[in-house]
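Posting for a labmate who doesn't have an account.
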Amino acid sequence: MERTIFTRDHDLFRESVRHFVAAEIAPLHPQWASDGVVPRSIWRRAGALGYLCMAAPEEFGGAGVSDFRYDAILGEELARQNCTGPGFGVHGTIVAPYILNYGTPDQHRRWLPGIVAGETILAIGMTEATAGSDMATLRTTARDDGDAYVVNGQKSFVTNGSLADLIIVSCVTNPEHKQWGVS
């Protein structure tokens, strides 16, 4: 079935990503699966090619393009070649937007260049054994301790967790008003 949502630019991007996955990921993916880790070098390579966090402003190395179709293409091409190891989608489409939309200017300067370059790998700690990803039943808490938060709890299925340099963690910060107190 022909899809009409993609432009010529998207088609060119897809060709580039398809070649990258076929040449640099697919041949090594079985070994990475056996080892249980995707090497950081492939993250840096994806960053160098401009595939990570395209929505980041140009001043931080991104393309400044907030078009989810590019992220979808990256995910489709990895899936097309059964390369499930690289967690580029979690990195660029789930975690990076928290930093882009809620981070301070200092956090942008500190983190975004590395995120775009593949030097700083992102993960999210949301899922819990007893709650799944249901935010209303989270048990992990974060208590304000002055200039820091003390986190107490457990997370599971943290995609990119073993490589991550920065992890967004879902926590209850106001147990009395749990429906409003998830951060």
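Reply:
Got it, the structure tokens are right above this. The beta strands are 122-125, 141-144, 149-152, 166-169.
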